[in-house]
Amino acid sequence: MKIRLLGKTPDELKEIVADAGLPGYAAGQIARWMYVNRVRSIDEMTNISKAGRERLSEKYEVGVTGYAGLQASSDGTKKYLFPVGSGAVEAVMIPDGDRSTLCVSSQSGCRMGCRFCMTGRQGFHGQLAADVILSQFIAVDEADRLTNAVFMGMGEPLDNYDNVMRAIEVLTSDWGFGWSPKRITVSTIGVLPALKRYLDESRCHLAVSLHNPFPEERLSVMPAEKAFHEEDIVRLIRQYDFSGQRRVSFEYTMFSGFNDSIRHADALSRMLRGLECRVNLIRFHEIPDFPYGCPPDAVIRRFQERLNANGILATVRASRGEDIMAACGMLAGKFKEDR
User: What fold characterizes domain 3-61?
Assistant: First the structure.
């Protein structure tokens, strides 16, 4: 099996070109071909000699994973299926005016076990390497028009820290995609101490899946609360400055009769008071064998208004791609690769 070049840094590429008998500057050429021109084969790197390309191709390949399936929603959202082993992961492209946001997967399945999430129900099947994560950016039809990325697809990004951060390094480096860190948001249930590393080592935005301000209630739907207490998560976040370009938001999926009362709104307000943040209220997309449904819009609006009255900025997120199972919590990756 050939070694994939996608995801390599220029320093790593220097060792590879030396191994292939190429001059050191070829490392920069390869990086530009992969991350700026987005080529999928070594043969397309035409400013490298034919003999050099042939030597490279003996052991290496670019390694872009193309998508194996595509579904389009009536609202313009697209869900892409990428083969991984005997299964697949999903990435979602969300258009919104002049913005095109890619919702990226970081794991095959997930081991956090959130009861309201289809991905969490399928269990954990493996980490996605940086090249597979980056392939989601390169292989989608809208690759040249992407403006933003959210690591909110399948998996817990901070449970695959090294590969996610390697992908972000490629996305934000001058020798890579050249994106500003403020175009990227990483979503997490709050995996400590990886969260601290992320806050120390990255300038990208943060989104924390909270869903309930009472620890014992959060534990009943999010088993990870046992290891990563929400109070510790918020306490850590308070140590960092979010008054500038980096933002923190808290994701709060609304479940009827579970977390949608004024009591919950007031407790959430106390938990976040004084923190420069936003709360995103998310309409729950019902899944089988889960006891709660989505509250009426009037209840969601009342909850939002209570938070705003308490000094907490709250917005209601628009639902996108529900008709193709591409909305929050609905990615399941049931595809089996056709042998």
Answer: DNA polymerase; domain 1 (1.10.150)
